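The protein record filed here:
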Amino acid sequence: MTAGADDPTDDRVAALRAEEAKRDAAQVVELTSRARRVRESLLPVLDGLATAVPVTNAPGPAASKPDVERWQATTGKAVEDFANPPSGGTGVNIARSGLAAAVQTLDAAVDTYAAALAQSPTARAGLFELTGRQRDAAVAIWGSAATQLDVLNIDSGNGHVHVFLPTVPGQGALTADGAPEGK
């Protein structure tokens, strides 16, 4: 039998590809919604860290213990939000794992900041510097994943989606392209 339009193997392969495309399209929508939600929750953490550990890495005013505890709860929840992901296509898995890595890195930055505050003032400098580097890495990792998510949305027919974390001069993170959302 020669491969042709009536080949059952070709039909099955086409059906599997269609199922995968449908699954991935649904996962792109869900992942975009989750990324938007998590992004909004992380903004106060990033604002607080920007004040406490400016990009210059010269320490700012110390954050209060209740503020740091809120940051830890927020980043811990964000890590949970990306735990146990469903399997998807390669592009979806790349975006999801990138977002997960970013929130894990930001969670580590907040823990490092909390550890710094537990040290004597003279012993804090190195931990503050490490906090800033971890925060900057988290924003950069998120930017790469957000770029992938933008591409997935364009490919799925949803148009541009920009869920980038805010950057400040010196962080070197990716930012949204100039295209308007949804176009």
Observations:
- The two ends are 46 Å apart (CA to CA).
- Residues 21 and 47 are 38 Å apart (CA to CA).
